[in-house]
Amino acid sequence: MPQNLPIRGLGTAGVVTDIPPASLPAEAFTRAKNVRFDEGTVSRAPVFRSIQSSLPIAPSFVHGISAASASAFSSVIIASNTYQLREYTNGSLVSRQGSIATTSASTLNFTAATLADMTYLNREDKVPVYMAQGGSLFASLPNWDSTWRTASLRPYGDFLLALNTTESGVGYSTRVRWSNPALANSVPDSWDAADATKSAGFNDLVEMKTPILDGAALGTNFVIYSRDQSYLMEFTGGAFIFNFRKLFSDAGVINQNCAVEIEGKHFVFGSDDIYIHDTHSKQSIVDEKVKQYIFSSLNTAKTDKCFVQANPALEEVYFCYVSGDDMAEYINGSECNRAAVFNYKNNTWSFMDLPNVSSAASASIPTATTYATVVDSYETFGGTYFSQEAGYDSHTLFVGKSDTPDGITSHKLYGLDLSGSSSMLSAPYDTEANKAPFVERTGIDLDEMMQLSMYKVVSRIYPQVSTESSNMQFHFTFGAADLQNSAPTYEPQVAFDASYQHKIDSRAAGRYLAYRMDVLDTKNFDFSGFDAEITTTGRR
Question: Which of 149, 252, 366, 401 is most buried, with most CB under 10 Å away?
Answer without folding.
Answer: 252
